[in-house]
Amino acid sequence: SAVGVAWAPDPDVPAKLLVRFHRYMPAGPYWVLDTDYGTYSVVWSCMNLFWGVARVEFAWILGRERTLSEYRLRDIIYELTRSKIDAVKFKWTDQDNCPGRNGTVPATPPSQNEIPQ
Fold first, then answer.
1. Which pTM does this prediction carry?
2. How far is the C-alpha of 62 from the C-alpha of 39, rounded, in Å?
3. Is 34 exposed, middle or buried (0-12, 13-18, 19+ CB in 10 A)?
4. Which residues contact 50 (CB under 8 A, 6 or more apart)?
5. Which tens digit of pLDDT belongs to each residue from 41-96?
6. Rounded distance, CA 41 to CA 90, Å?
7. Which of 48, 65, 69, 110 has the highest Cβ tally under 10 A?
8. What one-character DSSP code corresponds to residue 102?
9. Exposure b/e, 67-103, CB count within 10 A at least 16 = b
């Protein structure tokens, strides 16, 4: 698990956060791209490394339950693709043996053919 401290440097843009996971590490940018404030959030981070020579991007689809509905997941992936975030590169977390709060069964991630290009 990871525990961090997040804050919005600009209160007029509360979706753009800085997050620090250790007091000796610099804070990284995290941007909440989408949320319904109850079941899911989509978070994206992009950082330039080595004075702009390299760039690292991360994105997460976070759910309060172990699964999201197929409809919701497809909608999120469609919006990520429209934002030029390549959902084909996502690594799906296998939650088959994870303890859950309820008896939900993990959804199968969409195949590459089902993700808009």
1. 0.72
2. 8
3. middle
4. none
5. 999 998 888 887 888 888 999 888 888 888 999 999 999 999 888 888 888 877 77
6. 15
7. 110
8. S
9. ebeeebbeebbeebeeeebebeebeeeeeeeeeeeee
Query: Residue 5 CB: number of other CB atoms within 10 A?
Result: 11
109 Cβ contact list (under 8 Å, min separation 6): 73, 90, 92
Question: Tens digit of pLDDT for each residue in 21-48?
Answer: 888 888 889 999 999 999 999 999 988 8
Work out the widest C-alpha separation in the chain, in whole angstroms. 47
- Which tokens go with 101? 């709060």
Question: By C-alpha distance, which of 97, 92, 87 is closest to 109?
Answer: 92
67 close to 92: Cβ distance less than 8 angstroms: no
DSSP state of 113: G
